[in-house]
Amino acid sequence: MSGQYRDYPKHLIRKLPRYYRYLNEQKQLGREYISSNELALLMGISPSQVRQDFNRFLYNGYHGVGYNVSAILEQITELLDLKTKKNTIIIGAGNLGQSLSNYDELKNCGFEIKAFFDINPKLTGAVINGIKVFDMDKIGEYIEAENIVAAILALPTEGTSEIARKISEYGVTMFLNFNPVFFEFERDVFIENVHIDDNLMMLSYKGAGERNDEK
Amino acid sequence: MSGQYRDYPKHLIRKLPRYYRYLNEQKQLGREYISSNELALLMGISPSQVRQDFNRFLYNGYHGVGYNVSAILEQITELLDLKTKKNTIIIGAGNLGQSLSNYDELKNCGFEIKAFFDINPKLTGAVINGIKVFDMDKIGEYIEAENIVAAILALPTEGTSEIARKISEYGVTMFLNFNPVFFEFERDVFIENVHIDDNLMMLSYKGAGERNDEK
């Protein structure tokens, strides 16, 4: 792919994973075509917004029967670079790290888990879900030798940002962070923070409305 | 709290957890006041948008020194009903469920974990992080006896939506779902889906731009 997509506004790019999910569900259900009206309903946006997005971003061959589901999925896959293999390590081989190593979506997005790293020396050498655990001391040479570009930060502890900063110096440019302490890098190193706390707060809000309605 | 907040548009409510996180960070750093300009920078929105949100939603006592951080946090806590204790169960006592049972934000949002439930009979009776594992057969009576209102779906398997539907009939109205298969309920039962796949796709996109820039 070319680098042309970088100029798209972030709020438009942010919609693509949701389009992908809904379209993929429709594909699994055997749908070949979908109308802008149906897709708008799934996305919770207006049909004209869907058409606008598709004219700007995606497959715009609407031919009466609707948009071709597979063709759009193919385009999103390319836009988001999901097919490119990204050698990935998981830092933290505890419960969270272990459960993530089983997570199918990693592979679907091109993230291939090559190794665990953990500060607990008792775990060194263990093999979990077919993936070996290495000692943190070896992380720099491993990253360079295995061409690791992505790291999943599954550490519950403080010190996560220091570890991330250290390994970014060896060439890791993509981080998926589960630690509730968030941090940023200078440009060219990218973090996605998983905000489970946001989900919890929204759930609390929704449930509060429900409880109030009952009164 | 009264039920008046339900009429706020969802996109405004969705901002509150982010305000909460940034303001809480500032509070931890010892800040008592923050200006709309500073907060706008953290949130990635315009200062006038911050002032507009605060006039509509939140503490609007801006007095030259800025907004009172603690006062706003207090208001968001009330708006989102975070202080109300919500008796909660985790369904699935595997790696994901276990790691979630340690997650501090649950308690901070009022979700108190009372029990695990698991289909694996070998786990029945075990105590994990101080929380007992029960057999799925007992779930209905447990929910009613212990006044459970929320459930965390930490099942990797299919069948999650059937389990959720079943236990909603016993009175659970709030679900946090980690299963990549998403589903909806009729009104008055609320689901928050944790979309780790969205984070992965965005990370792939960002990294792709980086790799292209290098070419």
Automatic annotation (TrEMBL), chains A, B:
Q: Give the originating organism.
A: Christensenella minuta
Taxonomic lineage from the root: Bacteria, Bacillati, Bacillota, Clostridia, Christensenellales
Indicate the segments forming the CoA-binding domain, all copies: 82-182
Name the gene for this chain: rex
Q: What is its main location?
A: cytoplasm
Q: Which residues bind NAD(+)?
A: 92-97
The protein, known as: Redox-sensing transcriptional repressor Rex
User: Which keywords label this protein?
Assistant: Cytoplasm, DNA-binding, NAD, Repressor, Transcription, Transcription regulation
Recorded GO cellular component terms are: cytoplasm
Task: Please state which protein family the record places this protein in.
Answer: Belongs to the transcriptional regulatory Rex family.
Subunit note: Homodimer.
Q: Name one GO biological process term.
A: response to redox state
Q: Which residues bind DNA?
A: 18-57
What task does this protein carry out? Modulates transcription in response to changes in cellular NADH/NAD(+) redox state.
Record bears the keyword Cytoplasm: yes
Q: Where in the cell is it found?
A: Cytoplasm
